[in-house]
């Protein structure tokens, strides 16, 4: 049969950015592997050279991260303020329930995979104990949970834009070798990094209050709705840089790995289990849930999210890929912007299925 070129051309035009972003991922991998072969045997790219290669990708990532704050605040306030209070409660409750359920499923899947495959059976402990930047923090699980709740209620919203609170434990002066951290002195400090959870909670509360006084504050609600549209417009411009940005981000990440062969020989099976688990969770478990609750074709839905998936792969950040995800849901999958702009910022903050699966595998591995 003859190929219908008009249909092919229409498909390319509709999905041009997605196709270019996926192409950027492929080129980035090829470029990274190709550049690794340039230095002579025993030599590697210097940190400065990698920085030069990563420069374009870093600029793209900075532009995306700059949009996170205005996007979350404006979209959440506009979305929650536009919805009825009862509807907001229903959507929010279902979203949180869904996030908890999928996270639990991801953990269970990770545990089942690592027990079944046993990726660490032939590895020595010293070979797989990765060097973590800065090492683990000396805190208890209770401290982490309390910090999570504390950050939901930031005392200073301006400070929440750039810093978040964390508990700091220090050994007692009279017994600095004390090993029981429950006996350590409890303090606190602010670390660099946007307190997204606090901003999400504050924006939801503001949006609920705005929705409850909609008649009196129609002008304020209109302002945030218009601001949200402006931010999404700017987001659309930045997203067109994603093919180039993702290419250099991935190439630089590949160059940063000191020895690919050594890494895969030690962690190859572990990597396969984690990657396979994430793919199975995303394309099978979540797709099945999507079909059961919506009776729609999950393959078409996922295909429309291709650009967001490619951006997430390149940036390795839920928050950085939030603008792209929001645009894909609204423009390609036809999701009501009031729902997407309410649910997505919360999901980008608390719904970390991939991390949950990875941590479950790593703990047993």
Q: Which SSEs are present, and which pair or pack?
A:
Layout: H1 5-14, H2 16-36, H3 47-82, H4 85-117, H5 125-128, H6 141-152, H7 157-160, E1 163-170, E2 185-192, H8 196-212, H9 218-239, H10 242-256, H11 260-294, H12 298-304, H13 306-315, H14 322-332, H15 337-350, H16 353-364
Antiparallel strand pairs: 1-2
Helix pairs in contact: 2-10, 2-13, 3-8, 3-9, 3-10, 3-15, 4-11, 4-15, 4-16, 6-8, 8-15, 10-13, 11-16, 13-14, 14-15
GO molecular function: glutamate:sodium symporter activity; L-glutamate transmembrane transporter activity; neutral L-amino acid transmembrane transporter activity
Membrane topology: Multi-pass membrane protein
Organism: Anopheles aquasalis
What can you tell me about this protein's structure?
Keywords: Membrane, Symport, Transmembrane, Transmembrane helix, Transport. Belongs to the dicarboxylate/amino acid:cation symporter (DAACS) (TC 2.A.23) family. Its main location: membrane. The protein has 365 residues and is mostly helical. The chain has one domain (5-364): Sodium:dicarboxylate symporter (Proton glutamate symport protein). The chain has 16 helices and 2 strands. The chain has a two-stranded antiparallel ribbon. The termini are far apart. The model is unreliable at 125-135 (pLDDT under 50).
């Amino acid at each position: 049969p003859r190929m219908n070129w008009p249909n092919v051309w229409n498909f390319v035009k509709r999905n041009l950015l997605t196709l270019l972003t996926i192409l950027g991922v492929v080129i980035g991998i090829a470029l990274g592997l190709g550049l690794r072969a340039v230095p002579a045997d025993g030599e590697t790219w210097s940190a400065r050279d990698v920085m030069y290669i990563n420069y374009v990708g870093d600029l793209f990532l900075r532009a995306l991260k700059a949009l996170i704050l205005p996007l979350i605040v404006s979209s959440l306030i506009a979305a929650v303020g536009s919805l009825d209070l009862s509807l907001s409660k229903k959507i929010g409750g279902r979203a949180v329930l869904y996030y908890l359920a999928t996270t639990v499923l991801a953990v269970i899947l990770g545990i089942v995979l690592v027990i079944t495959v046993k990726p660490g059976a032939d590895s020595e402990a010293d070979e797989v104990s990765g060097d973590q930047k800065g090492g683990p923090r000396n805190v208890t699980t209770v401290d982490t949970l309390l910090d999570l709740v504390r950050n939901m209620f930031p005392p200073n919203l301006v400070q929440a834009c750039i810093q978040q609170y964390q508990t700091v434990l220090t050994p007692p002066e009279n017994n600095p070798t004390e090993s029981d951290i429950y006996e350590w002195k409890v303090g606190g400090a602010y670390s660099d990094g946007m307190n997204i959870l606090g901003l999400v909670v504050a924006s939801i509360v503001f949006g609920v209050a705005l929705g409850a006084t909609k008649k009196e504050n129609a002008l304020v609600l209109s302002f945030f709705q218009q601001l949200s549209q402006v931010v999404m417009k700017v987001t659309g411009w930045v997203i067109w840089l994603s093919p180039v940005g993702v290419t250099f981000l991935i190439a630089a990440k590949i160059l940063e790995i000191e020895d690919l062969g050594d890494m895969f020989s030690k962690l190859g099976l572990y990597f396969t289990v984690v990657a396979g688990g994430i793919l199975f969770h995303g394309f099978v478990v979540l797709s099945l849930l999507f079909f059961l609750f919506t009776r729609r074709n999950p393959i078409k839905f996922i295909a429309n999210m291709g650009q967001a998936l490619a951006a997430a792969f390149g940036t390795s950040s839920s928050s950085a890929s939030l603008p792209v995800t929001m645009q894909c849901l609204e423009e390609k999958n036809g999701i009501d912007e009031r729902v997407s702009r309410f649910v997505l910022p919360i999901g980008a903050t608390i719904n970390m299925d991939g991390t949950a699966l990875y941590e479950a595998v790593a703990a047993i591995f």
